[in-house]
Amino acid sequence: MQKLLITGASGFLGWNLAQIARTQWETHGFYHQQPIEIASVTLHQVDLTDIDRVTAAIDRIAPDAIIHTAAASNPNFCQQQPEVSHRINVIASQSLAQICAAAKIPLVFTSTDLVFDGTQAPYLETDPVSPINIYGEQKVAAECAILATCDRAVICRMPLMFGNAPSTAMSFIQPWLKSLSAGQSLQLFVDEFRTPVGATTAAQGLLMALQMSPGILNLGGCERISRYEFGLLMADVFGFDRSLLSPIYQQDLVMAAPRAADVSLDSTKAIELGYVLPSLREELSAILAAQK
Asked: Of 20, 52, 101, 162, which has the maximum CB count within 10 A?
Protein backbone atom coordinates (compact mmCIF):
# COMPACT_ATOMS: atom_id res chain seq x y z
CA MET A 1 0.00 0.00 0.00
CA GLN A 2 1.39 3.39 -0.99
CA LYS A 3 1.89 6.17 1.56
CA LEU A 4 -0.13 9.39 1.51
CA LEU A 5 0.69 12.40 3.68
CA ILE A 6 -2.11 14.83 4.52
CA THR A 7 -1.21 18.19 6.01
CA GLY A 8 -3.80 19.78 8.27
CA ALA A 9 -5.16 16.42 9.43
CA SER A 10 -6.81 18.00 12.48
CA GLY A 11 -8.62 20.52 10.28
CA PHE A 12 -12.09 20.07 8.85
CA LEU A 13 -11.11 19.08 5.31
CA GLY A 14 -7.97 17.17 6.30
CA TRP A 15 -9.89 15.09 8.85
CA ASN A 16 -12.60 14.21 6.33
CA LEU A 17 -9.97 13.37 3.74
CA ALA A 18 -8.22 11.03 6.17
CA GLN A 19 -11.46 9.08 6.73
CA ILE A 20 -11.49 8.08 3.06
CA ALA A 21 -7.77 7.95 2.31
CA ARG A 22 -7.05 5.43 5.07
CA THR A 23 -9.03 2.77 3.18
CA GLN A 24 -6.82 3.17 0.10
CA TRP A 25 -3.43 4.35 1.39
CA GLU A 26 -1.07 3.98 4.30
CA THR A 27 -2.08 7.38 5.59
CA HIS A 28 -0.01 9.85 7.59
CA GLY A 29 -1.16 13.23 8.82
CA PHE A 30 0.48 16.42 10.03
CA TYR A 31 -1.14 18.53 12.71
CA HIS A 32 0.24 21.52 14.61
CA GLN A 33 -1.66 22.93 17.60
CA GLN A 34 -4.68 20.61 17.71
CA PRO A 35 -3.74 17.07 18.82
CA ILE A 36 -6.00 14.45 17.31
CA GLU A 37 -6.32 10.71 16.93
CA ILE A 38 -7.66 9.12 13.75
CA ALA A 39 -7.98 5.35 13.55
CA SER A 40 -5.58 3.74 11.06
CA VAL A 41 -3.81 7.07 10.47
CA THR A 42 -0.32 7.88 11.80
CA LEU A 43 -0.26 11.45 13.13
CA HIS A 44 2.81 13.68 13.42
CA GLN A 45 3.00 17.04 15.21
CA VAL A 46 4.77 19.39 12.82
CA ASP A 47 4.84 23.16 12.43
CA LEU A 48 4.73 23.73 8.68
CA THR A 49 6.58 27.03 9.03
CA ASP A 50 9.58 25.13 10.50
CA ILE A 51 11.02 24.04 7.18
CA ASP A 52 13.84 21.93 8.62
CA ARG A 53 11.42 19.93 10.76
CA VAL A 54 9.00 19.53 7.86
CA THR A 55 11.78 18.24 5.63
CA ALA A 56 13.03 15.81 8.28
CA ALA A 57 9.53 14.47 8.95
CA ILE A 58 8.80 13.94 5.27
CA ASP A 59 12.17 12.22 4.80
CA ARG A 60 11.24 9.78 7.59
CA ILE A 61 7.77 9.08 6.24
CA ALA A 62 8.86 8.91 2.59
CA PRO A 63 5.34 9.46 1.21
CA ASP A 64 4.38 8.59 -2.35
CA ALA A 65 2.14 11.68 -2.53
CA ILE A 66 1.14 14.70 -0.44
CA ILE A 67 -2.23 16.46 -0.21
CA HIS A 68 -1.76 19.87 1.38
CA THR A 69 -4.95 20.99 3.13
CA ALA A 70 -3.39 22.96 6.00
CA ALA A 71 -3.94 26.71 5.80
CA ALA A 72 -4.81 29.87 7.64
CA SER A 73 -8.20 29.84 5.93
CA ASN A 74 -10.16 32.49 7.82
CA PRO A 75 -10.25 35.55 5.51
CA ASN A 76 -10.67 37.96 8.43
CA PHE A 77 -7.63 36.49 10.21
CA CYS A 78 -5.53 36.79 7.05
CA GLN A 79 -6.66 40.39 6.58
CA GLN A 80 -5.67 41.28 10.15
CA GLN A 81 -2.53 39.10 10.38
CA PRO A 82 -1.02 39.19 6.86
CA GLU A 83 2.55 38.33 7.86
CA VAL A 84 1.62 35.34 10.01
CA SER A 85 -0.83 33.99 7.44
CA HIS A 86 1.67 34.55 4.60
CA ARG A 87 4.17 32.24 6.30
CA ILE A 88 1.53 29.54 6.51
CA ASN A 89 -0.32 30.00 3.23
CA VAL A 90 2.52 30.93 0.89
CA ILE A 91 5.99 30.16 2.25
CA ALA A 92 5.10 26.77 3.76
CA SER A 93 3.23 25.78 0.61
CA GLN A 94 6.17 26.68 -1.61
CA SER A 95 8.50 24.67 0.64
CA LEU A 96 6.27 21.61 0.30
CA ALA A 97 6.34 22.05 -3.47
CA GLN A 98 10.15 22.09 -3.39
CA ILE A 99 10.20 18.90 -1.32
CA CYS A 100 7.78 17.18 -3.69
CA ALA A 101 9.75 18.32 -6.72
CA ALA A 102 12.98 16.93 -5.26
CA ALA A 103 11.29 13.63 -4.36
CA LYS A 104 9.46 13.50 -7.71
CA ILE A 105 6.09 12.84 -6.05
CA PRO A 106 2.64 14.38 -6.71
CA LEU A 107 1.40 17.33 -4.68
CA VAL A 108 -2.27 18.30 -4.49
CA PHE A 109 -2.77 21.80 -3.10
CA THR A 110 -6.12 23.04 -1.83
CA SER A 111 -6.73 26.58 -3.03
CA THR A 112 -10.01 28.51 -2.90
CA ASP A 113 -12.81 30.01 -4.96
CA LEU A 114 -11.85 33.33 -3.33
CA VAL A 115 -9.07 33.78 -5.89
CA PHE A 116 -11.87 35.47 -7.92
CA ASP A 117 -13.56 38.84 -7.43
CA GLY A 118 -17.11 37.57 -7.90
CA THR A 119 -18.06 39.63 -10.96
CA GLN A 120 -17.83 36.99 -13.74
CA ALA A 121 -19.16 33.74 -12.26
CA PRO A 122 -19.32 30.86 -12.86
CA TYR A 123 -15.53 30.53 -13.05
CA LEU A 124 -13.53 28.06 -15.11
CA GLU A 125 -9.98 26.95 -14.33
CA THR A 126 -8.74 29.12 -17.19
CA ASP A 127 -10.35 32.38 -16.01
CA PRO A 128 -7.95 35.08 -14.78
CA VAL A 129 -7.67 35.37 -11.01
CA SER A 130 -8.71 38.61 -9.31
CA PRO A 131 -8.77 38.31 -5.51
CA ILE A 132 -10.24 41.11 -3.42
CA ASN A 133 -8.91 40.08 0.00
CA ILE A 134 -5.54 39.05 1.42
CA TYR A 135 -6.51 35.40 1.82
CA GLY A 136 -7.30 35.20 -1.89
CA GLU A 137 -4.07 37.01 -2.74
CA GLN A 138 -2.06 34.55 -0.66
CA LYS A 139 -3.68 31.57 -2.33
CA VAL A 140 -2.90 33.03 -5.76
CA ALA A 141 0.73 33.54 -4.72
CA ALA A 142 0.89 29.95 -3.46
CA GLU A 143 -0.68 28.59 -6.65
CA CYS A 144 1.89 30.39 -8.80
CA ALA A 145 4.83 29.32 -6.64
CA ILE A 146 3.72 25.69 -6.56
CA LEU A 147 3.11 25.40 -10.30
CA ALA A 148 6.48 27.03 -10.98
CA THR A 149 8.27 24.70 -8.56
CA CYS A 150 6.68 21.26 -8.82
CA ASP A 151 5.92 19.68 -12.19
CA ARG A 152 3.62 17.10 -10.58
CA ALA A 153 1.37 19.57 -8.77
CA VAL A 154 -2.40 19.90 -9.06
CA ILE A 155 -4.12 23.01 -7.73
CA CYS A 156 -7.63 22.19 -6.51
CA ARG A 157 -9.82 25.25 -6.07
CA MET A 158 -12.22 24.43 -3.26
CA PRO A 159 -15.64 25.97 -2.64
CA LEU A 160 -17.48 26.49 0.63
CA MET A 161 -17.48 23.05 2.31
CA PHE A 162 -19.67 21.44 4.94
CA GLY A 163 -20.08 18.14 6.71
CA ASN A 164 -19.36 16.17 9.83
CA ALA A 165 -16.40 17.53 11.76
CA PRO A 166 -13.87 16.45 14.40
CA SER A 167 -13.66 18.04 17.85
CA THR A 168 -10.74 20.14 16.61
CA ALA A 169 -12.49 21.90 13.74
CA MET A 170 -15.82 22.74 12.16
CA SER A 171 -17.48 23.69 8.90
CA PHE A 172 -19.82 26.63 8.53
CA ILE A 173 -22.88 24.51 9.34
CA GLN A 174 -21.84 23.43 12.86
CA PRO A 175 -22.62 26.80 14.49
CA TRP A 176 -25.79 27.03 12.41
CA LEU A 177 -26.97 23.64 13.65
CA LYS A 178 -26.14 24.57 17.23
CA SER A 179 -28.12 27.82 17.00
CA LEU A 180 -31.14 26.28 15.28
CA SER A 181 -31.19 23.34 17.69
CA ALA A 182 -31.41 25.88 20.53
CA GLY A 183 -34.23 27.74 18.80
CA GLN A 184 -32.00 30.74 18.13
CA SER A 185 -32.38 32.88 15.02
CA LEU A 186 -29.81 33.18 12.24
CA GLN A 187 -29.16 36.03 9.80
CA LEU A 188 -27.75 34.76 6.51
CA PHE A 189 -26.58 36.49 3.34
CA VAL A 190 -28.92 36.54 0.36
CA ASP A 191 -26.35 38.21 -1.90
CA GLU A 192 -23.32 35.94 -1.49
CA PHE A 193 -23.36 32.97 -3.86
CA ARG A 194 -21.14 29.89 -3.81
CA THR A 195 -21.16 26.31 -5.11
CA PRO A 196 -20.84 24.45 -1.78
CA VAL A 197 -19.92 20.79 -1.54
CA GLY A 198 -19.88 18.16 1.17
CA ALA A 199 -16.46 17.39 2.60
CA THR A 200 -16.68 13.68 1.75
CA THR A 201 -17.34 14.55 -1.88
CA ALA A 202 -14.52 17.11 -1.86
CA ALA A 203 -12.15 14.55 -0.36
CA GLN A 204 -12.95 12.07 -3.11
CA GLY A 205 -12.17 14.82 -5.61
CA LEU A 206 -8.78 15.46 -3.99
CA LEU A 207 -7.86 11.79 -4.17
CA MET A 208 -8.95 11.75 -7.80
CA ALA A 209 -6.69 14.74 -8.46
CA LEU A 210 -3.64 12.66 -7.49
CA GLN A 211 -4.19 10.67 -10.69
CA MET A 212 -4.62 13.60 -13.08
CA SER A 213 -2.19 15.66 -15.12
CA PRO A 214 -0.63 18.71 -13.47
CA GLY A 215 -2.65 21.92 -13.57
CA ILE A 216 -5.72 23.47 -11.99
CA LEU A 217 -8.99 21.75 -11.11
CA ASN A 218 -12.24 23.19 -9.75
CA LEU A 219 -13.93 21.00 -7.13
CA GLY A 220 -17.12 22.97 -6.63
CA GLY A 221 -20.57 21.56 -6.03
CA CYS A 222 -23.37 21.23 -8.55
CA GLU A 223 -25.66 23.99 -7.22
CA ARG A 224 -25.17 27.77 -7.08
CA ILE A 225 -26.81 28.94 -3.89
CA SER A 226 -26.80 31.79 -1.37
CA ARG A 227 -26.12 31.20 2.31
CA TYR A 228 -29.74 32.07 3.07
CA GLU A 229 -31.06 29.56 0.53
CA PHE A 230 -28.67 26.95 1.91
CA GLY A 231 -29.97 27.67 5.42
CA LEU A 232 -33.56 27.14 4.30
CA LEU A 233 -32.63 23.82 2.68
CA MET A 234 -30.77 22.73 5.80
CA ALA A 235 -33.76 23.67 7.95
CA ASP A 236 -36.01 21.53 5.76
CA VAL A 237 -33.71 18.50 5.90
CA PHE A 238 -33.04 18.71 9.66
CA GLY A 239 -36.59 19.69 10.58
CA PHE A 240 -35.90 23.17 11.94
CA ASP A 241 -38.30 26.11 11.89
CA ARG A 242 -37.66 28.17 8.74
CA SER A 243 -38.87 31.31 10.55
CA LEU A 244 -35.65 31.27 12.59
CA LEU A 245 -33.79 32.32 9.41
CA SER A 246 -33.78 35.89 8.17
CA PRO A 247 -32.04 37.41 5.13
CA ILE A 248 -29.34 40.08 5.34
CA TYR A 249 -27.03 41.71 2.81
CA GLN A 250 -23.24 41.84 2.79
CA GLN A 251 -23.35 45.59 3.40
CA ASP A 252 -25.29 44.95 6.63
CA LEU A 253 -22.30 43.27 8.29
CA VAL A 254 -18.89 44.90 8.63
CA MET A 255 -16.03 42.40 8.30
CA ALA A 256 -12.27 42.82 8.15
CA ALA A 257 -11.96 41.03 4.80
CA PRO A 258 -14.02 42.07 1.75
CA ARG A 259 -16.29 39.33 0.40
CA ALA A 260 -16.96 38.62 -3.27
CA ALA A 261 -20.61 38.46 -4.33
CA ASP A 262 -20.50 35.31 -6.49
CA VAL A 263 -17.51 32.97 -6.75
CA SER A 264 -19.43 29.98 -8.09
CA LEU A 265 -17.17 27.42 -9.74
CA ASP A 266 -17.77 25.57 -12.99
CA SER A 267 -16.53 22.04 -12.23
CA THR A 268 -17.24 20.48 -15.62
CA LYS A 269 -13.60 19.45 -16.03
CA ALA A 270 -13.63 17.51 -12.75
CA ILE A 271 -16.98 15.89 -13.55
CA GLU A 272 -15.61 14.68 -16.88
CA LEU A 273 -12.70 13.12 -14.96
CA GLY A 274 -15.11 11.22 -12.69
CA TYR A 275 -15.98 13.71 -9.93
CA VAL A 276 -19.42 12.61 -8.70
CA LEU A 277 -21.60 15.37 -7.24
CA PRO A 278 -24.66 14.49 -5.15
CA SER A 279 -27.30 17.18 -4.67
CA LEU A 280 -27.06 19.40 -1.60
CA ARG A 281 -30.19 17.78 -0.21
CA GLU A 282 -28.58 14.35 -0.56
CA GLU A 283 -25.38 15.57 1.12
CA LEU A 284 -27.29 17.13 4.04
CA SER A 285 -29.47 14.04 4.42
CA ALA A 286 -26.33 11.89 4.67
CA ILE A 287 -24.97 14.13 7.43
CA LEU A 288 -28.24 13.86 9.33
CA ALA A 289 -28.24 10.08 8.95
CA ALA A 290 -24.65 9.86 10.23
CA GLN A 291 -25.52 11.93 13.29
CA LYS A 292 -28.40 9.59 14.14
From this structure: 162
The answer to whether residues 103 and 187 belong to one domain is no
For residues 84 and 92, give the distance between their C-alpha atoms in angstroms, rounded to a whole number. Answer: 11
Residue range 42-53, pLDDT digits in tens: 999 999 999 999
- Please state the domain count of the chain: 2
Give how far the C-alpha of residue 191 lies from the chain's centroid of Cα atoms, to the nearest Å: 22
Rounded to an integer, the average pLDDT of 36-43 is 97
Q: What CATH number has the domain bearing residue 179?
A: 3.90.25.10
How far apart are the C-alpha atoms of 70 and 32, rounded to whole Å?
A: 9
Rounded Cα distance, 267 and 73, in Å: 21
Put simply, whether the predicted model's pTM sits higher than 0.85 gets the answer yes
Domain that holds residue 260: 173-193+224-264+279-291
